[in-house]
């Protein structure tokens, strides 16, 4: 379990560009994994495997996973990605703060962390050799903080600029939120997800 040591306003946060360009710290196969920052800390921009056709999964916020030490959510993400014909996966999040329990997340939006997270999202979208495939998978936890729906709106705009194609997987919640990756069979199919309809419908009611 990861419990934040303090709010993200009280820690030094590397910009995405700084974190991406930092010399490798070692400890994992960087030819297979992409991990930014590439060491364990109170925030994470990107965790995934390298390939030509990645499935970009978006959760709410990171927990404890690292390269070679995936939690159950990330194990499910990898299974679903491979089962749907992708050669790799990238785990991304609406908000970059590590917190296993969503109730431990920042009460207020850290604008700098969000801004750098959006830079990371654009980078991730441009990794795909073809049209980027984005799996909305944040579940009903998106309602935990008032700023999270605003972050999703920014992600949708970034995705539109980069030509992203959106998907969901599994049954949506009663409120219309896309299913979290846990408890999905490995052969669960991805289905088209109209992110604009979602923004104007379920997300607008949060």
Strands, helices and their partners?
Blueprint: H1 16-21, E1 33-36, E2 46-49, E3 54-59, H2 72-83, E4 88-93, H3 111-125, E5 133-136, H4 147-161, E6 165-168, E7 191-192, H5 195-200
Name some characteristics of this structure.
alpha/beta, seven-stranded mixed beta sheet
Explain this structure.
By secondary structure, the protein is α/β, with parallel strands linked by helices. It has 5 helices and 7 strands; from the N terminus they run αβββαβαβαββα. It has helices at 16-21, 72-83, 111-125, 147-161, 195-200, and strands at residues 33-36, 46-49, 54-59, 88-93, 133-136, 165-168, 191-192. A 7-stranded mixed β-sheet has the order 1-2-4-3-5-6-7, sandwiched between helices. Helix 3 packs parallel to helix 4. The longest helix has 15 residues, at 111-125.
Task: Write a concise synopsis of the structure shown.
The chain has five helices and seven strands. It has 206 residues and is an alpha/beta fold.
């Amino acid at each position: 379990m990861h419990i934040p040591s303090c709010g993200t306003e009280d820690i030094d946060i590397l910009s995405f560009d700084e974190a991406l360009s930092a010399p490798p710290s070692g400890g994992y196969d960087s030819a297979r994994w992409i991990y930014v920052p590439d060491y364990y800390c109170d925030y994470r921009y990107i965790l995934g495997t390298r390939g030509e056709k990645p499935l970009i999964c978006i959760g709410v916020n990171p927990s404890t996973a690292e390269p070679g030490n995936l939690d159950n959510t990330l194990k499910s993400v990898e299974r679903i990605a491979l089962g749907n014909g992708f050669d790799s996966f990238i785990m991304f999040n609406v908000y970059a703060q590590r917190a296993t329990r969503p109730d431990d997340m920042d009460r207020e939006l850290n604008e700098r962390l969000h801004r750098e997270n959006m830079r990371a999202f654009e980078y991730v979208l441009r990794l795909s050799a073809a049209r980027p495939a984005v799996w909305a998978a944040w579940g009903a936890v998106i309602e935990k903080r008032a700023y999270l729906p605003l972050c999703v709106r920014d992600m949708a705009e970034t995705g539109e600029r980069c030509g992203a194609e959106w998907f969901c997987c599994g049954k949506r919640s009663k409120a219309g939120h896309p299913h979290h990756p846990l408890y999905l069979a490995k052969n669960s199919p991805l289905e088209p997800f109209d992110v604009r309809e979602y923004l104007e419908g379920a997300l607008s009611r949060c």
